[in-house]
Task: inverse folding
């Protein structure tokens, strides 16, 4: 603690668990956007990861409420959010949006994977056969006609899914952006900044997990698809960085009463995580690396490596961004005269260990999903090499 | 189809009866709602017929901290200085107009040592004063807006309360309060804050902090009572509220306000 803080402000109430909560929702929204780019916007170059991105979104969505419930003072009352919602509260919408999104996502996953499930049900034996037969829900027809209906439904669901995914994450930004008591949070840019960083982190996650899983499977990396994702990552990252910069720049330029404490926050309290990790390591460096892969001729392996590295950096940077918003905002005293301090404990419910376990959970869920419904489609032709120009991008 | 006179009267009477019964439903409901809330307070009036208000007089406060102690005892607030329904801040302004603020142990033990932690030489002090703080019971409370389950709410007599049997402990209200008036009770897993001693004021008593203040720096009363001390004091003095720019419309008015007090 330095300077003056109100006596009740000694404790950081929204701790590490609330840092990883928007991180996980962001990954959901980002992964879903990638699958929608294929299913709705017809970017066929993303086909190799379209199914994979969908189950990645589902795996992360299933874990989303966990850090919130663990963080509650009275977790046994969590369902009150559904039963007695206060509709003026942005937070009360969470349960409904999450549930609605879950229904859409599960339905879409089921439709996309139905042909596989039906095939497994007929080809496997024993317990696996029972599982797949149950998963097929008795819809075993795989005629051209039924598949056309499926495809149409998938398109409709992805179409509805986009605004809902945006809502799910935009609302997380709104939870912070609408707190007028906190000068570091209170900006209408917050939902948009959260959305863009969500998309960025989701694409980065897909790049990282896709490459690792492909290596583990000893399959060949679809380079066209891979670099196309990297291209989109660079695009969204650029817009995200500009918006994040604009937010702070306008605060600097307007020089309101709160600027003095915010500038102290940025230059003294969170200088390392803000300038060091979020800005340089997590935004600027990956942007330069991605630009290098797009501009210079280099060996395919090297290019893939750089895109992979950029994505890892972006994932770290977005985590730092969540930290700088959630923790940074609470470090400032509302008296605008001082700072409190925070270091997450290692053990305990809100410690580093529990948070790491929660962050690891979606990957376990994803592994289970991949085991039961492998998203890979092996009939895809070997990749052709083409430049990353506009005409080759699929954006016609 | 022909209707006999007898049938006509029968049907008409039934229709009339049904109409009366149907149209009386809203009135019945209204009556039920009204009756259910008409509890009788100790001062003879109905609950929630007041419009409570509060004054803190910075010119009178001597920083003895008796209000903080009385509040902790009356409301079973944990004794540790991190939990406060009310507290006292000391402002020290130096000759070169630098402002130093402190609140050792939230003012619970007074401010005997001068200066305790601030590095201000006594010769440089230009002026110094105390500011008592408590929940502002905002007319437009942001904490009530953000509560996801409606566990915190505003009564008709203008006090913001917390239903601790309903609170889920998400602590969004703590983030939303611009005044730092709310705090989390780790043992109960719920949020707590000043209620202007709601249990006392509905028995015709005044809040504990007002009761014990030796210099009358805290005034409590009904804003609708033109002859009361609260309203007459407000009529005579210039007053101000904390952070009016946030549009929360606080109901604690400060006399002797100074630039730099948030």
Result:
């Amino acid at each position: 603690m330095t300077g003056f803080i109100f006596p009740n402000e000694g404790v950081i109430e929204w701790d590490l668990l609330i840092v990883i909560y928007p991180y996980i929702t962001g990954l959901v929204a980002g992964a879903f956007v990638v699958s929608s780019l294929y299913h709705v916007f017809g970017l066929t170059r993303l086909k190799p990861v379209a199914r994979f991105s969908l189950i990645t979104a589902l795996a992360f969505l299933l874990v989303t409420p966990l850090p919130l419930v663990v963080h509650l003072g009275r977790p046994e009352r969590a369902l009150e959010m559904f039963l007695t919602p206060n509709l003026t509260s942005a937070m009360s919408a969470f349960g409904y949006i999450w549930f609605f999104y879950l229904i859409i996502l599960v339905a879409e996953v089921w439709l996309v994977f139905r042909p596989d499930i039906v095939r497994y049900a007929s080809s496997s034996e024993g317990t696996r056969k029972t599982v797949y037969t149950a998963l097929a829900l008795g819809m075993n027809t795989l005629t051209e006609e039924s598949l056309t209906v499926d495809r149409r439904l998938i398109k409709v669901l992805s179409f509805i899914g986009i605004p809902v995914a945006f809502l799910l994450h935009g609302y997380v930004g709104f939870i912070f952006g609408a707190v007028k008591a906190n000068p570091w949070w209170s900006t209408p840019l917050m939902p948009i900044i959260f959305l863009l960083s969500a998309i960025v982190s989701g694409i980065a996650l897909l790049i990282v997990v896709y490459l690792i899983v492909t290596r583990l499977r000893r399959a060949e990396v679809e380079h066209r698809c891979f670099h196309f994702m990297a291209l989109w990552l660079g695009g969204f990252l650029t817009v995200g960085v500009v918006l994040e910069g604009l937010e702070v720049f306008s605060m600097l330029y307007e020089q309101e009463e709160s600027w003095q404490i915010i500038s102290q926050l940025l230059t003294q309290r969170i200088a390392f995580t803000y300038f060091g990790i979020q800005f340089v390591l997590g935004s600027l460096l990956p942007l330069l690396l991605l630009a290098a892969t797009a501009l210079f001729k280099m060996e395919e392996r090297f290019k893939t490596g750089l895109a992979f590295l950029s994505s890892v950096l972006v994932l770290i940077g977005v985590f730092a961004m969540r930290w700088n918003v959630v923790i940074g905002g609470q470090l400032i005293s509302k008296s605008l005269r001082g700072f409190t301090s925070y270091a997450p404990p290692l053990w305990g419910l809100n410690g580093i260990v529990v948070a790491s376990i929660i962050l690891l959970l979606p990957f376990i869920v994803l592994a289970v999903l991949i085991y039961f419904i492998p998203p890979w489609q092996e009939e895809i032709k070997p990749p052709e090499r083409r430049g990353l120009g506009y005409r080759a991008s699929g954006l016609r | 189809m022909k209707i006999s006179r007898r049938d006509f009267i029968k049907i008409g009477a039934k229709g009339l009866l049904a109409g009366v019964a149907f149209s009386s439903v809203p009135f019945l409901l209204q009556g039920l709602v009204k009756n259910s809330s008409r509890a009788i307070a100790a001062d003879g009036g109905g609950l929630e017929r007041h419009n409570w208000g509060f004054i803190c007089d910075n010119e009178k406060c001597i920083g003895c901290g008796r209000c903080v102690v009385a509040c902790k005892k009356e409301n079973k607030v944990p004794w540790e200085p991190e939990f406060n329904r009310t507290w006292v801040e000391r402002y020290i302004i130096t000759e070169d107009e630098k402002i130093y603020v402190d609140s050792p142990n939230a003012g619970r033990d007074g401010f005997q040592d001068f200066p305790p932690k601030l590095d201000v030489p006594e010769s440089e002090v230009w002026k110094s004063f105390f500011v008592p703080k408590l929940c502002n019971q905002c007319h437009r409370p942001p904490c009530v807006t953000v509560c996801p389950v409606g566990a915190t709410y505003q009564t008709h007599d203008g006090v913001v309360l917390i239903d601790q049997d309903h609170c889920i402990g998400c602590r969004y209200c703590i983030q939303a309060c611009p005044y730092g008036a709310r705090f989390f009770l780790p043992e109960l897993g719920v949020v707590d804050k000043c209620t202007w001693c709601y249990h006392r004021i509905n028995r015709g008593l005044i809040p504990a902090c007002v009761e014990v203040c030796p210099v009358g720096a805290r005034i409590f009363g009904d804003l609708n009572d033109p002859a009361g001390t609260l309203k007459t004091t407000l009529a005579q003095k210039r007053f101000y509220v904390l952070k009016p720019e946030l549009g929360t419309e606080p109901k604690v008015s400060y006399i002797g306000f100074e630039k730099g007090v948030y």
